[in-house]
Amino acid sequence: MTEAEFREMAARTRAKALAAEVFAYVRRTYGFTDLDLTSHRRLAQLIEARKLVVRLLRAHGENWWSYPKIGRLLGGRHHTTIMYLDWSANHLVGALPVFARHCGDFACQWSSRENRHAA
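Request: output the structure for the sequence above.
Response:
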């Protein structure tokens, strides 16, 4: 295995771990299941939960989580839908303090996890 292949495999593994952590955090925070998050239901709270998924993957995914990849993860949504969710999530950070707190709480959780695994 070349060094480039090893780096790609490590990035993919880390991206999958991030997605698992994001989904677990959003499930705990909003009380939705993975099936809810990937469904095509449009409840306001469910859309907000999806926005959080997109925001966290984009913020912590080190450019691995593209809009099309997130769209596939969230039930086959079009990448432009994910772009809108991302734009809307960025707006919510400033407009809805509880949403900003969720983003901050996850960032602390993820960085402490990364620090434990790096040691």
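Helices lie at 3-30, 34-38, 44-60, 67-73, 79-95, 97-118.
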